[in-house]
Specification:
The chain is an alpha/beta fold. It has 15 helices and 21 strands. The strands form five sheets. It has a seven-stranded parallel beta sheet, sandwiched between helices. It has a five-stranded mixed beta sheet with strand order 8-9-4-5-10, with no helix packed on it. A four-stranded mixed beta sheet has the order 19-18-20-21, with helices on one face. Helix 9 runs parallel beside helix 14.
């Protein structure tokens, strides 16, 4: 079925699978249009008057919004109202099917009811287009990943690749692994990449010389500046060790949502970080499995006093070793974690249980619970990822098998906006 609409152009023929612009200078009646096009022709205003109450023409909830120029998805419509749709579209109904036709405006280019997409013409300099015209739009979240080549960083990119309508990698950073960073840039097309070690700037720039849209920066100063970009919505801090502190502070001051996977930031400056988060009203969401589990267990328990936090621990590769056996272990032995595949530093820290000590400190700052109310429990199966015991005797825990899917779910939970609370 084809539809003729006198709109921006003298006439437009809409087909079910494409839009063809056909300009006829002197079409005034349906008869003339039918004679020239050789198809059934309907004028939208006529059919709009024939709409019945049970027609679900306004259901563009879930449609993705596409930038006409870049062809990128910029958001998803989560709510609409009839006035908005009438303003932005002409709607026709034929043989039980609803067809959205862009009305005479400068924003909507095309509405695809099959692919559920709306292509928009975005005025230059407009960062959040037509949010005042559509009742509610879930804009694609722009994410900066500090440490994108590490274990957490690569898994976060996997989450982004699985949800391209919700997330986009705006900036990716690495310390020295410029080859991996270049590969990620080619796959995810971020606006910027940063290599912390300036010695690798030339190599990274050369590797991405054929992609001028990706800006290449180097140095610790660049890390601190990139997180302040107005385009960024959230920062995933997955850098190793103390190096994550300074950029995290800059991100908090820029009021970016912090997805915290760098526990050393709170170990060395927990009090400062929490003070800044409160001062700048910046949410902090834990990514570590144990702290994410505690976080989820506390949802809905604002009025329930915490008796203690139960922080689980696998015990590491030397859990069953005797004192004599421990005298002869090697670094290679320590790197064989029985449950998780992680970076070298955190794996060594886990084998020595130093990492669990860090996590106790992190939990103390994140949840405002004194250390003597944080109990570490050895749990080799790593199914209970942590729990909270309340003064009323109840215990809430987060359980999931220790697989890649679990890590994926933890990251998805931290990146999403489904939280009913945040740590500030």
């Amino acid at each position: 079925m084809e539809y003729l609409c006198p709109s921006l152009w003298k006439s437009i023929v809409f087909r079910s699978d494409e839009i063809a612009l056909m300009k006829f200078c002197d079409i005034d009646t349906e008869a003339q249009a039918r004679e020239l096009t050789g198809c059934e022709v309907f004028f939208p205003r006529k059919l709009a008057a024939e709409r019945t109450e049970d027609v679900s023409w306004a259901q563009i909830v879930g449609y993705s919004l596409i930038d006409e120029q870049t062809k990128r998805t910029i958001g998803k419509i989560t709510a609409v109202d009839e006035t908005t749709v009438n303003t932005l579209f002409e709607v026709v109904t034929s043989e039980g099917d609803d067809v959205l036709i862009p009305a005479s405006n400068e924003l909507i280019v095309e509405a695809d009811t099959v692919g559920q997409t709306i292509t928009m013409r975005i005025p230059a300099g407009t960062a959040r287009p037509i949010t005042h015209r559509i009742k509610e739009i879930q804009m694609k979240q722009q994410i900066c990943i500090l440490g994108s080549t590490g274990s957490i960083g690569t898994q976060a990119l996997d989450v982004i690749s699985q949800h391209p309508d919700l997330y986009e990698a705006y900036a990716l950073t690495a310390n020295k692994r410029w080859k991996e960073l270049a590969d990620q840039a080619r796959r995810f097309h971020p606006s910027a990449v940063v290599i912390a070690d300036e010695n690798y700037y030339e190599s990274l720039s050369s590797a991405l010389s054929d992609m001028p849209d990706i800006k290449v920066y180097a140095g610790t100063k660049a890390l601190e500046e990139i997180v302040e970009s107005p385009s960024i919505d959230m920062v995933l801090t997955a850098m190793v060790g103390y190096s994550g502190l300074a950029p995290t502070i800059h991100a908090i001051k820029a009021k970016k949502k912090i997805c915290l996977a760098n526990k050393e930031t709170l170990v060395v400056a927990g009090e400062l970080i929490l003070q800044l988060a409160q001062q700048y009203h910046t949410p902090i969401l834990p990514v570590d499995s144990e702290h994410s589990a505690i976080f989820q267990s506390l949802v809905g328990e604002d009025d329930n006093e915490i008796e203690k936090i139960l922080l689980t621990c696998s015990g590491g590769p030397f859990r069953t070793f005797t004192h004599e056996q421990l005298k002869s272990v090697t670094a290679a032995d320590a790197l064989k974690h029985p449950t998780w595949e992680m970076g070298a530093k955190i794996t060594i820290d886990s084998a020595s249980l130093m990492n669990k000590g860090f996590e106790v400190i992190e939990a103390k700052w994140l949840f405002g619970v004194p250390a003597d109310k944080i109990q570490v429990l050895i749990h080799p199966q790593s199914i209970v990822h942590s729990a909270v015991q309340f003064v009323d005797g109840g215990v809430k825990a987060q359980l999931e098998c220790p697989t890649c899917a679990f890590l994926y779910n933890m990251l998805s939970h931290s990146l999403s906006d489904c939280h009913s609370m945040a740590i500030v």
